[in-house]
Amino acid sequence: MINIVDKTSCCGCSACASVCPKQCINMEGDNEGFLYPHVDKDTCIDCGLCEKVCNELNPMAPREPLQVLAAINKNEKIRLKSSSGGIFYVLASKIISEGGVVFGARFDENWQVLIDYAEDMESVKAFMGSKYVQARIENAYKDVKYFLIKGRKVLFSGTPCQVAGLHQFLRKQFDNLLTVDFICHGIPSPKVWQMYLDEIFGCYKRMKSVSFRDKTRGWQNYHFRIEYDDNENATMLLSPATQNQYMRAFLSDLILRPSCSFCVAKSGSSRSDITLADFWGIWNENPQMYDNKGTSMIFINTDKGRLVLPSEEIVKYDKSDYSTALKYNRVCKVSVSPNSKRDLFFLKLKTTESVTQLIEKTLKPPFMQLCIINTKLLIRRLMKLEWGR
Questions:
Q1: Nearest Cα to 135, choosing from 156, 114, 111?
Q2: To which H or E segment does residue 175 belong?
Q3: In terms of C-beta distances under 8 Å and separation of at least 24 residues, what long-range contacts does 288-292 make, across chains too?
Q4: Contact present, 266 and 11 (Cβ < 8 Å)
Q5: Shortest CA distance to 86 belongs to which of 228, 317, 296, 334?
Q6: Which of 13, 97, 177, 367 is 20 to 30 A removed from 119 (C-alpha atoms)?
Q7: Triad 316, 320, 322: Cα angle to 5°
Q8: What's the first-to-final CA gap in the chain, in angstroms?
Q9: Three-state DSSP class for 251?
Q10: 3-state SS assignment for residue 340
Q11: Do 98 and 153 form a contact (C-beta atoms < 8 A)?
Q12: What are phi and psi of 97, to 5 degrees?
């Protein structure tokens, strides 16, 4: 029987709930907004399947990729709508063209995130772009298994822990399954996201679209954008990611799931066929593959992943290596450290009237640190004045 004593040892992948033959495990939210398994002990038959499919209890071995590539989708419209180089869309297009099914993360009617499937490219568009909220699995693993047994090709995309959870749930290899994960910084609290939206918008019906990584002003200088209706007039909230309260909380590791600081799905241990990411630092390593519109980094992890790689007619490639990838994307191997104020933040979250003010106050540097920063700035200004004489 699955029993979560230490919350750092549960990633919320839902494999245990999905595999339970008696359906006696429910994923329930805690006071931080993260889902954890709860067992109905009266219904449980102690079959042990939930423990067998738990990736935290049975982590898979790490591995390095077979090949590392920098990649750019030559379709500029698709690349602009993508967080990085637009490679996921091409992979999805291949599977759909062969009569397959694509699984990915989309927003629901309340702008929370869940894993769903698509059988046409129009529906796949909802999976495009980064979504910095933990996605609910719900029936996704069961649906994947159903389509696989029917003989259809399936592309499943998700976080490394979700891909690992799928493999543990299936407990066998399927030739018609392609798994794609991404280099994950960590998964933020759905509760904090909901409180943020409640405070900023109140009514979800006003919202039309959300982009955590809008690139209209450049890939490096990405913005947080929400389009909505204000008194029947279309308008937009647009702010640099470094200035938006929710994004600042995410990027400072303030609102991540406890297990993200002890992730067992790093270093290729998710067993994905392909790993996608932003190729940060490409402007230094390979300027010919950089135009500030987005460049993907691709880890080819298996021969199956190599075989589905799009042709050079569709995607521009250049070779790289794992050491270069690690230089700019350490989180593909190393878990993030929890913010020192994380516990205090969630304690105050229970009674706060403004989550945006709580984020601002929590992330505000201490007085002495501000003094040091201001002193350094003053010295620099004085030195510039002196040099200018």
A1: 114
A2: none
A3: 288/318, 289/70, 289/72, 289/316, 289/318, 292/218, 292/219, 292/220
A4: no
A5: 296
A6: 13
A7: 140
A8: 75
A9: helix
A10: coil
A11: yes
A12: -65, -20
* 281-295 mean pLDDT: 96
* 355-363 and 190-200 helices, crossing angle to 10°: 120
Comparing CA positions, the residue from 91, 116, 120 lying closest to residue 104 is 116
> How distant, in Å, are the alpha carbons of 28, 151, 372, 376 from that of 384?
57, 69, 19, 12
Render the burial of 250-272: b for 16+ CB within 10 Å, e for the rest: bbbbbbbbbbbbebbbbbbbbbb
Angstrom distance (rounded) from CA 153 to CA 112: 27
Predicted confidence (pLDDT) per residue in 247-260, tens digit: 999 999 999 999 99
| 268's tokens | 């290729």
**Alpha carbon separation from 66 to 290, 292, 299 (Å, rounded):** 23, 27, 7
Q: Is the pLDDT of residue 203 over 80?
A: no
Does residue 22 carry a pLDDT above 90? yes
Across the chain, where does the E strand assignment appear? Answer: 25-29, 35-39, 67-73, 101-107, 113-118, 154-157, 177-182, 207-214, 223-230, 233-240, 274-278, 296-300, 315-320
Sign for the CA dihedral angle at 130, 273, 311, 277 comes to positive
CA distance linking residue 154 with residue 181, whole number of Å: 14
- How many other C-beta atoms can be found within 10 angstroms of the C-beta atom of residue 10? 22
Question: In the chain, count of helices (H) and strands (E)?
Answer: 15, 13
The pair of three-digit structure tokens given for residue 123, joined into one six-digit string: 């529906």
Q: For residues 279 and 154, give the distance between their C-alpha atoms in angstroms, rounded to a whole number.
A: 26
- How far is 204 from 226, CA to CA, in rounded Å? 11
Global pTM reads 0.92
